[in-house]
Amino acid sequence: MYWIYLVIAGMFETVWAVALKYSQGFSRPIPSFITFIGMTASFYFLAKALKGIQLGMGYAVWTGIGVIGTFIVSIILFNDYINLAQGICIFLIFAGIVGLRLLS
User: If 0-12 CB within 10 Å is exposed, 13-18 middle and 19+ buried, where does residue 78 land?
Assistant: First the structure.
């Protein structure tokens, strides 16, 4: 169950990062509100996950999920450019997350 909490926390990290972009420096109220709700939810689920997962492991996976999720969403919503080297690096982060899960 702790790993499920960690995945949820990582997904909320992606939510708040994308909402932060839409908030335009906290000048737009609804995206700003979503940013704060996403942050709160992300930290809440991370705290629940850390009850049963080591801190270093949990933090690495949490940030990795957020990085990958935000990267994918930025390509889809904002047409961010990705080159081969960047794609390989993101794949390595993904591989690291899977490896950490399989080895724990």
Answer: exposed
**Whole-angstrom distance, CA of residue 86 vs CA of residue 94:** 12
pTM for this model (two decimals) = 0.90
pLDDT of 104 higher than 90: no
Q: What angle do CA 84, 73, 35 make, to 5 degrees?
A: 140
DSSP alpha helix (H) spans, 1-104: 2-23, 29-49, 55-78, 84-102
Q: Which tens digit of pLDDT belongs to each residue from 19-50?
A: 999 999 999 999 999 999 999 999 999 999 99
d(CA 16, CA 39): 6
| Structure tokens that stand for 13 in this block | 């990290």
Taking the C-alpha atoms of residue 36 and residue 70, their distance in angstroms, rounded to an integer, is 16
